[in-house]
Amino acid sequence: MPKKRSGGGLSTTQQAAKFLGVSVLAGAVMAGIALPAAGALGLAAKGSVQGFDEIPANLKSPQLSQRTTILDSKGNQIAQVYSRDRTVVDLKDISPYMQKAIVAIEDSRYYQHGAIDLKGVLRALNKNAQSGGVSQGASTLTQQLVKNYFIEEAGDDPTKVAQATQQTLGRKVKELKYAIQLEEKLGKKKILENYLNITFFGEQAYGIEAASQRYFSKHAKDLTLEQSALLAGIVQSPSRYDPVNDEAEATKRRNVVLERMAQLGDVSQAEADKAKEKPLGLKITQPKNGCITAVKGAGFFCKYVENVFLTDPVFGKTREARAKLWNQGGLTIRTTLDPQAQESVQTSVKDHVYKSDSVAAAATLVEPGSGKILAMGQSKPYGYSKNETEYNFSVDRDYGGSNYGFPTGSTFKPFVAAAAIEGGKSATQKYSSPYKMNYPSPVQQCDGKQWVNTTGEQVENENESEVGPYAMKKAMAKSINTYFVQLISDIGLCPVVKMTDALHVHQGDGSKLPQTPAIALGAIGLSPLTMASAYATFADRGMYCTPVAIESITQKVGNEEKSLAVPKSTCSRAMSEKTADTINTLLRGVIDSGTGQQAGLDDRESAGKTGTTDSRKNAWFVGYTPNLAGAVWVGSAKQNIEMTNITIGGVYHSEVYGADTPGPIWKDAMTGALVGKADESFNLVDIPDDDDHDKGNGNGNGNGDNTGGLIGGLIGDTSDGGTTDGSTNGGTSPTPTFSFPDGFIQGNGNGGNNGNGGGRG
Q: On the CB side of 46, how many CA atoms lie within 13 Å of its CA?
């Protein structure tokens, strides 16, 4: 009985017998091709090997994974991403030296034998038996190509890779049969081309074009003799012959290849000797893989594009199918990113909030009417080091964002106003709006139930001086909390839910908004992209368009390119034009004379809303022009920093407001993004000023027998007896549709033809 060598290896006799078995198998396979009756001879013994004739007849060449290039809307490269860095090229685009070098060292009889080289098998068997080891293999280039096909199909799954490379008789049978098929189907030149495109050259480079770029920063067609010999030598053991980490070993291997080329007559001995004397001459190009390499701070947008691809069913029915397509690569993805807008956003964010600050800023710009995402940036760069992050603060959790988004504060109030106006409320609607009050209760919900303030929860305005009554215009400009709580109590929660659904406003985790009056004050976490897209609806006079990041995709398949379907923006009417125009007028007032004056654009019309949350953990500005909308958030990702007595971007703030930190970011970002763009105007509506609250302007001169006009002016209401500007028209003031706090005067009288026209409001 043969003895095993120490360490558990096979003896020389056992190795020879094993190799002989494979050799006999090769002969049997050839016999199976020539004589079908002999096809299954001995191959299915004990069920360990699939019958030769039972192996599927056709080997399907896999779509080789390649790098994917992501472009902006102008065709400029943002980044390249890949699971395997590969660019497939034709044989004519590969240096003749390279073609000869790989054949010389890997399969010198390539053009003389078929798929299986029996002489090579016998030679290897003899040499291995003499050496007492496996010092020489016998696989042809065609067999190696088949093996690489199996590996490529396995992808990055370690289990599948192990199965594709396991040294079993069954796998060798498949390999041999498919090798014969490839020889008949493709021919020598195509097999060589495919081999050079699929094989691994180390340093993350798959295929000769990627290897040529990695080691020499040139195209494969331009490789010299010595460069070709070096790359051909790497294939046998990319780690051992890696020229980057072991120049001496790589040089020795290169020279072996050169000598072999001379022996075969591919080059003269003199040419080979001259090439041996040359240094390796490496000109390394560092791998640039992934969104971390994106230009102009577009790493987060790049990652958003990837997440859209992996999430949207248009790219495959399952996530596994979409991931497979993404990893195969070879894609050219043209996106909606506008380079001018992106540069403006990133510059503004970095200027106003430093990456080392304890808080962060994120900004997103969206085009009204199309849903195109034009820019997306944030203060902390994309990465994994200190003061960097992989979280995209501009988007929802499913697309790489935070778990829940960020509370929006008063930037939510326009949604409540839109719901009220769409339901028939006038923009002159007034409420008592005291400085502080309990949340009104009960409030009607969509399911017929009611929200009840069982715990006595209270709401208050920013300043004690902010005491009503107010109408909507001034309440929006001054961001009066109690006004909007009373408004949502008046109309109920369902109209607000209906409006936010139409605007696709949802929490950062994708769930619907809760039905509580507190949503009027922006207590729920949303993403900047959600907010920018919703406000773009106002800009487009009531048409909501789903956000899109991808314009087109082409995929290289062989020598051809095919177009892939991409997600399209779907636009739908969320509100009437009149409602949108009214909101635009209200939010124009926020910038003209309200809390957002610091954010107003200097050279064109703009509208927007500030927002600050409890304890100043979040500050927002969301605004727009008729042709561009944007949202800016500033705060702590972990929601653990109160922005008081804080320095942000080198500027000290005793208290941060939506106007003084995110506002200027929005202004600078929008200004740069709009350079050269059309200066468009809003369709504004006439909303009388709420002057009665401040000064009253009585002007009555009639014989009214009651005080309807006086009361109308007193409470700042518009009625037949007294208008908001204090003029008089006589008549009956309507019963108010709002509730008053205890002790407030509620009047209702006949004012006559020319009733007394109001007093101080």
A: 3
